[in-house]
Amino acid sequence: MEREIVGGLMVGDDQIELLLDDLFEIHGYDFHDYSRASFKRQINRLFQKGKFPSFAEFRFRLRTDKSFISYFLEKVTVNVTEMFRDPSFFKMLRESVLPTLNTYPFIRIWVAGCATGEEAYSLAILLKELKMLHKSLIYATDLNPVALESAKLGHIPLKYMKQYSENYIAAGGTDDFSSYYTASYYYVQINKDLLKNMVFSLHNLVSDHSFNEFQLILCRNVFIYFNSTLQDRVLNLFDNSLANLGYLALGSKETLQLSSISKKYRAISTNAKIWRKH
Description:
Blueprint: H1 13-27, H2 36-49, H3 55-64, H4 66-76, H5 87-101, E1 107-112, H6 118-129, E2 136-142, H7 145-153, E3 155-157, H8 161-170, E4 181-183, E5 187-190, H9 192-195, E6 198-202, E7 214-219, H10 228-241, E8 242-250, E9 265-269, E10 274-277
Parallel strand pairs: 1-2, 1-7, 2-6, 7-8
Antiparallel strand pairs: 3-5, 4-5, 8-10, 9-10
C-alpha cells in the first residue's frame, strides 16, 4: 500500500478505493474515473482538516452522515469560476456563435458544471445585450448542492467585481457592467431579470442521462478532473444532448480531438475551444 506521510496520518491508495466504492454503492456518486491524484489530494485535505483519529472514523462518517456527504461534495468538487473567464471565449460567443443562434425561435443552453453560477450569469448578460434573453433558457447544472444553492441566489462577493468588470470589457461588453447588479457592503446581487431565464438543478455528469436538446453546451474546465475514459463518456452525453448544428464549448486546456465523437464536429475556433456539430 502506498501511503504519504506529510504532517501526520494520511489516507492511502487502497483506502481511497474503499471510499470510491462506498460513495458509489451507498450514495450513487461515481468518482472512479476522476483524476486519482486530484481526488486523493482533496480527500487527504478533508481528513487532515477534520482531525479524524482514524481512517475508520472518516469512512463511517462518509457512509452514514448525510450532512457530512453534503460537506464532502462541496469540498471535493472544485468550484473555481469567475464571470467572463477567458474574455476571448466570450467575445467569440458574442460575435460568432450567438448571432447564428439568434435565427432560432427559441434557444436552450446548458452550462454543465456551473459551480456558483458566474458563467451562467455571464451568458445571460451576453444574451440580454444581443436582445436574445427573452427567447433563451439557460440550464445550469452541477453535482454540488451547496454551490447550486449559492448560484440560485445570485450573490457574488463584492471583492471580485473589479476583476469581473475588467473581464466584461475585454469580452466586448457594451453596457455599464454595474447596471447588472446591486452592490451592498460585502456582496452584490445579480439582477433578477437575468436570473428569471435560468434553471439551476443537480446533475451528475458521470451517472445521469441527457435531459433535453440544446443549441449550445458549455462545459469548461471540468474535464481536467476526469480521466480519458470519463471524458469520452461525458462527451457522448453532450453529443446526445446537442441538436444538429449546435455548439459545444470546452475549457482552454480541453479538446475533442482524440474523442469518439470528434468526426461529428468541426472547430470554429481552436483558441476559444468551440466546435459545431454537423
